[in-house]
């Protein structure tokens, strides 16, 4: 059975062009720096983010945690939002790998307030840890995108206090698409950035960590320590090159499909769509509590060839991607209507 998969854009499979590039890739031992395809990917990734250097890593979580590990000394404090991916969905890795303390701030749907950050920067005191890093997320994992002005404001504050800024840009190209800017316009206001190749860009594996040359040199050794020396990784990097060169130009299609999906879902009685938060390819919504058993929805959809995740903290999320068409969305919405008609109390 062919499934319509709305669980995440991480479920995307490589395109035929990517598969062909992987088959034909020229490879070498990347730990020795001998893999020409990885080298090409890293050079291109540095170029499009406006950074001096870049590093291919196995995953987004790996890239974020490697950044914390490289920027910070053990015992440092990291300022970030209480709802960001590093806090919510990275298994507490910051305490295990980097040995840092996370000082979380309450955000406004992912957006941190400048005054809150300023208030949490540690002063010099024998009792205090040092503030080692500020982390931002754009696009946020709640689907929202924040302005260049917002990035600049926080970066200028951090620079004033000599604190580096790391950007979790897992969906950096979605953010750039929404803002109608080049990615480097966003990443000019951070010292390091991680972005994923394996989400909406459709590569099967991998992320990029980019920054200045000294940072990446240190991160490369940290990658080895963390088990990320992947040897003949050019087979994966080949797909990543296709992802970076071909896929960002079509992300607007996923965004348009998400808006369409949100509009159609909002017409169904009992569904409250967070329409104002549809900036990229994510649709968040609530189902009226009159629904008898929402866990049945997941099972019902699966039986009809639709894969979705159950609710998290009362919210459900559908994610569009390269493999989800407008016709697929119509099919999903029709099945949703049918389910609710039969299962509302």
Overview of this structure, please?
It comes from Fervidicella metallireducens AeB. The chain has 345 residues and is α/β, with parallel strands linked by helices. It folds into 2 domains: 233 residues, Type I PLP-dependent aspartate aminotransferase-like (Major domain) (Aspartate Aminotransferase, domain 2, 3-Layer(aba) Sandwich); 94 residues, Aspartate Aminotransferase, domain 1. Helix 1 runs antiparallel to helix 11. It is globular, with a radius of gyration of 21 Å. It starts with a strand and ends with a helix.
Keywords:
345 residues; alpha/beta; Aspartate Aminotransferase, domain 2; Aspartate Aminotransferase, domain 1; seven-stranded mixed sheet; three-stranded antiparallel sheet; 14 helices; 12 strands; 43% helix; lyase
The coarse overall form would be globular
Strand content: 15-25%
* Helix-residue proportion: 40-55%
Cα distance spanning the termini: 32 Å
Would you tell me the overall average pLDDT? Answer: 96
| Oligomer kind | single chain
Summarize the structure.
Keywords: Lyase, Pyridoxal phosphate. By secondary structure, the protein is an alpha/beta fold.
List the helices and strands and how they pair.
Layout: E1 4-5, H1 16-24, H2 36-49, E2 53-57, H3 60-71, E3 77-81, H4 85-88, H5 93-98, E4 101-105, H6 114-120, E5 131-137, H7 148-160, E6 165-168, H8 172-179, H9 183-187, E7 192-196, E8 207-211, H10 213-225, H11 234-246, H12 251-266, E9 271-273, E10 282-287, H13 295-303, E11 306-307, E12 316-319, H14 326-343
Parallel strand pairs: 1-11, 3-4, 3-5, 5-6, 6-7
Antiparallel strand pairs: 2-8, 7-8, 9-10, 10-12
Helix pairs in contact: 1-11, 2-11, 3-10, 12-14
């Amino acid at each position: 059975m062919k499934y319509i998969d709305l669980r995440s854009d991480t479920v995307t499979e490589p395109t035929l062009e990517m598969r062909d590039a992987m088959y034909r890739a020229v490879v070498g031992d990347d730990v020795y720096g001998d893999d020409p395809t990885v080298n090409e990917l890293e050079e291109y990734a540095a170029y499009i983010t406006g950074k001096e250097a870049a590093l291919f890593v196995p995953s987004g979580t790996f890239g974020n945690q490697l950044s914390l590990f490289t920027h910070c000394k053990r015992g440092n404090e990291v300022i970030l939002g209480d709802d960001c991916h590093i806090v919510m969905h990275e298994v507490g890795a910051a305490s295990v790998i980097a040995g840092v303390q996370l000082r979380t701030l309450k955000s406004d749907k992912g957006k941190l307030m400048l005054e809150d950050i300023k208030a949490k920067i540690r002063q010099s005191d024998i009792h205090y840890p040092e503030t080692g890093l500020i982390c931002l997320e754009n696009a946020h994992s709640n689907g929202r995108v924040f302005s260049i002005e917002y990035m600049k404001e926080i970066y200028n504050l951090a620079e004033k206090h000599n604190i580096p800024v790391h950007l979790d840009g897992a969906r950096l190209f979605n953010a750039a698409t929404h803002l109608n800017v080049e990615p480097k316009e966003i990443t000019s206001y951070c010292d390091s950035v991680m972005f994923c190749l394996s989400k909406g860009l459709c590569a099967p594996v991998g992320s990029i960590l980019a920054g200045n040359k000294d940072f990446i040199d240190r991160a490369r050794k940290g990658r080895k320590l963390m088990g990320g020396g992947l040897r003949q990784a050019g087979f994966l990097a080949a797909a990543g090159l296709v992802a970076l060169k071909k896929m960002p130009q079509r992300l607007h299609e996923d965004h348009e499909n998400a808006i369409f999906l949100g509009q159609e879902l909002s017409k169904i009685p009992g569904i409250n769509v967070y329409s104002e938060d549809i900036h990229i390819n994510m649709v968040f919504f609530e189902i009226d509590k009159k629904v008898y058993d929402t866990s049945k929805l997941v099972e019902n959809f699966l039986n009809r060839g639709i894969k979705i995740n159950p609710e998290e903290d009362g919210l459900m999320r559908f994610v569009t991607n390269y493999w989800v068409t407008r016709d697929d969305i119509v099919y999903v919405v029709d099945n949703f209507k049918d389910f609710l008609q039969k299962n509302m109390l």
